[in-house]
Amino acid sequence: MAKNLVIVESPAKAKTISRFLGRDYKVLASMGHVRDLPKSKMGVEVDKDFKPSYMVPADKKRTISALKDELRKAEELYIATDEDREGEAIGWHLLKALKVDEKKMPVHRIVFHEITEEAIKKALKNPRKIDQDYVDAQQARRVLDRLVGYELSPLLWHKIRYGLSAGRVQSVAVRLVVEREREIDAFNPEEYWRIEGLFENSKKDSFEAELQKYKDKKLSLTNEKEAKKVEKDLKKAEYKVSKVEKKQIKRNPAPPFITSTLQQEASRKLHFSVKKTMTVAQQLYEGIDTGKGETGLITYMRTDSVNLADSALKAAKNVIEKEFGKEFALSTPRRYKGRKGAQEAHEAIRPVDLSLKPEQAAKFLERDQARLYELIWKRTIACQMKEALVDKVAVDIEAKDYMFRATGQTIVFPGFMEVYMEGRDPGDEHLEAEHHEGDKFLPELKEGEVVDLKKLNVDQHFTKPPARYTEASLVKKMESEGIGRPSTYAPTISTIMTRGYIEKDGKSLKPTDVAGVVTDMLVENFNDIVDYKFTAEMEEKLDQVEEGKIKWTPMIKEFYEPFHKNIEIKEKTLKKADIVNEETDEVCEKCGSKMLVKLGRFGKFLSCSNYPECKNAKPLNGNGKEGGGEEGRAEESKEFKELKKKFKDKKCEKCGKDMELKTGKFGPFLGCSNYPECKNIMSIVVFSGVKCPKCKTGQLVERRTKKGGRIFWGCNKFPRCKTATWNKPVDICKKCGGLRVEGKEGAVSCVDCDK
Asked: How would you class 359 by CB atoms within 10 Å of its CB: exposed for 0-12, middle for 13-18, buried for 19 or more?
């Protein structure tokens, strides 16, 4: 019979730790939290110092019963949950749920950064008590979030739509995405022209340079007329190298991973969601069977510390010298300074054993595990390698009063770049490129040297709006604003997507209509809740509770009393119609009343203000135009732009006004601009230009399904000929006479002979 009972959170962790302990220890899992606030009610007694009413959920009662049975057989209890606030709170809740009498049974709290034999045995020799300050910080967060959620969410149900939810951190994250989308919508592209020259030196080496100055002042070309004038001026100019600047710079590696940077890099380089990154990292941390039994491969993955243990620094140097050469190793370790408030006693995310190279680990890892391990290994090794040395060259070329500039760089010594370079998010193109392979190389050029202009490229460009957030860039923004902590980023993003506030458009995050309505309502009426600075200050106060500097109940009281009073006021004064309805200038074609923009289950739509007497309603897209999302997508397409151009001068046959291109459920059509006075419409048939391969007389045209409006291509002799395909027709196959269509990524194949 085991004398000692060790409790961890997960079976995988329990299995790994069991390997390192003898028969005197039994390791069991609590399966995460064993107590929480009830779901059916608030569970916080606000008039009794916010006392939480915890309960054991039904699905955890069997677990608690089994742990109690084992506890009766043991002499000592070890709580070995994770080393963060949440882990500390789980341990505290375990003691309460198991009703452990610490006077009768010794209770030890043990913590470790990695699940290895050495780390576990060291932890057993250095036990401590449950840290109540950590527990109180976690309780404060839980109570704070419960108060906000349980009081604010019902208000959203009453004033906007049933089933909505609000949260102290989630609502701020939604606001970030909404405001970025509005920046994009409000952005007005500005035209500019760029002139680039292709030159050759006396040795016939070619290089490119961009026109930048005129009479020593920055040149800005805003239209074609200006650009063509400059182009004309430069036609017969002599081009001479006026200045050559060479400068050697050092580039330093990024620090080792913390939770947020791991999530960002895994998104950029591995295309992992934030949730997936944490799931795979948890597997690597808790233990992998390496053929010799389970062992943890990385250190704890919820951390904001960039510290590396002395043993890891020594191991990194040994690996670098062995794998890359002594010239790549540092004489003294490189240490990084973390952000304010970071838990410096913790460690960064790193491999437990740096001598285990990615290609060796891959033999016993699943694909995603191997990819994430390799990312962590490379980042850790790179941060302890010498800086890279880069020669940067800038060359100025004069032509009359104009000046071109060419830049390039060469790698003198790759240093850490031999192993790893940090990725970039969309919109970060102005920063240094991720890879140096694509850097421009300039030939040898001397001051005073005359060069030949081989070609002058004059191109039109438009400024671009800020990029939408990705999961990676949203985490980065939340961290920079102090919103949330390492353990909250993944669940926050998962929550706002699950609850329908945010949608994914490729890798980008896009707010739904309801996200905008809820954000506006919260900003106007509960600004503190969604204020970035206020949210960051609340996180700092939670940190102070953890550090034992302040008590948690006065902190909650300071927040709750004005918040609750505001809830009571808004419940009486806010009117649903004022929040969810927007007036428009459009008139209902059925009864003549004004149309309103309303918020429904599937987003915004147009509805008659005379409802329920008049039930006229129409879809509306995010830009306030008829036709819903389909028109929004069509407007962005090349085909839609071509149709607009084709019919721009089309006049209404009934009233003589301009006809406008619109898109409905069944595709594009022309509608009179004098609507609703004139309701003339004309259908548009989009021809593919490809004859029907079956009937030989018809032509394949764009059609849409009655249900869902999905595009397909069918013969215009329907119903006599029923030829149809989902893929866009390209031409007729010369080999078999069948139809060739456009597939994924533009690949063209024959539907008959390429089967």
From this structure: exposed
Token duo for residue 340:
């304010």
Strands 294-295 and 288-289: antiparallel
| H or E stretch covering 7 | strand 4-8
Point out the residues of the chain with pLDDT beneath 50: 344, 430-438, 621-637
pLDDT in tens, 566-592: 999 999 999 988 888 888 888 888 888
CA distance 31 to 33: 7
Could you give phi then psi for residue 208, rounded to 5 degrees?
-110, 150
Whether the Cβ atoms of residue 404 and residue 396 lie closer than 8 Å to each other: yes
CA dist., res. 734 & res. 725, Å (int): 19
- Dump pLDDT digits (tens) for 333-372: 999 987 665 554 579 999 999 999 999 999 999 999 999 9
Full set of structural domains in the chain with CATH: 4-130 (3.40.50.140), 139-187+467-576 (1.10.460.10), 191-250+389-462 (2.70.20.10), 259-382 (1.10.290.10), 582-683 (no CATH), 695-750 (no CATH)
Is 300 marked active-site? Answer: yes
C-beta separation of 79 from 97 below 8 A: no
Per-residue pLDDT tens for 383-425?
999 999 999 999 999 999 999 999 998 889 999 999 999 887 7
How far apart are the C-alpha atoms of 594 and 614, rounded to whole Å?
11
How far does Cα 50 stand from its chain's mean position? 35
* Catalytic-role residue among 25, 134, 285, 300: 300
| 3-state SS assignment for residue 105 | coil
Quote the pTM value: 0.76
